[in-house]
Amino acid sequence: MECLSGFKTEWEKFSAEVDRHGKQLATAQKSFDSLAGTRSNQLQRQLNRIDELQVARESDDDEETGAELSEWPPLRGVASA
Question: What are phi and psi of 51, to 5 degrees?
Fold first, then answer.
């Protein structure tokens, strides 16, 4: 009986640790998903705004001076590189 009691005690400790690590993994996964999804989407929005401003500025420059487009490449797609 002592052997069975010892096994039960160790099983409960093991199960508690597995549960604790499972929760930590879930927290890490949620944090990673936020970084990979939400944060990269927000960065891409900012890059799109910069690109729109650049295009608008180039259009204004062309209209005012007849100059060629800026040598700066558009930023669209930089985040995926």
Answer: -60, -45
Alpha carbon 59 to chain centroid, angstroms: 33
Residue pLDDT, tens place only, 14-52: 999 999 999 999 999 999 999 899 989 999 999 999 999
pLDDT-derived band at 81 (thresholds 50, 70, 90) equals: very low
Q: Closest by alpha carbon to 54, among 42, 67, 70, 41?
A: 70
21 vs 24: CA distance, rounded Å: 5
Rounded to two decimals, the pTM is: 0.50
pLDDT at 60 over 60: yes
Number of Cβ within a 10 Å radius of residue 70: 13
Q: How far is CA 2 from CA 7, 13, 14, 19, 31, in A?
A: 9, 17, 18, 26, 44
